[in-house]
Amino acid sequence: MAYRRTPAVQARLDAQAGSIVRAAMSVLSRDGYAGLSMAAVAAEAGVATGTVYKTFSGKAELVTAVFREVVTREVAAVAAAGDSARLGDVPVPADTAPKTARERVTAAVETFAGRALKNPKLAYVLLAEPVDTAVDTERLRFRRAFAEIYETAIADGVAGGQLPPQDPRTTATALVGAIGEVLVGPLAEQLESESVVPELVAFALRALGVPQE
Length: 213
Known about the structure:
Layout: H1 7-31, H2 38-45, H3 49-55, H4 59-83, E1 85-87, E2 90-92, H5 101-118, H6 120-127, H7 133-159, H8 168-189, H9 196-208
Antiparallel strand pairs: 1-2
């Protein structure tokens, strides 16, 4: 008879896996992909290295799990920002103040870039640091998820006459690529610049053809 894990055992294993993923996230935030090892993650998590290997086959699988968790969180944050109308710096409930394409894209760019600059080492791993093929595949999904947020806002803006005619997918994909490329320098060098986010927002709006105020 095949062994079946009890709910209690599965819950314990899931909790352990979550702890290891969080430890890996901490190591990546501190040392980057090149500095992450299974032993370093084990030490961070307070478990034996063998325990990490029992949960994840190797570095690529572990970092892929980190990517999925971080991307889910970051995409949710950017999507929420894009879905919240804004009046200056004050969020306004979406059901009381319909937002424009300009507001949606501005909020999404500010949130993505601002959060990236707060954790530059991890953001650099997500965007540009050389990684294994399996992790790079996850990176492409990461980029596509963010592109879809912009694509929706752009498509709605074109349909509503707020933006000039354009292919939303092409523009959105180009925006994600350009924003990531601009951030690579500050993230790699862990530099803080107050002008980066406003310049990215201005660039994004110009790229969309938003009339200058």
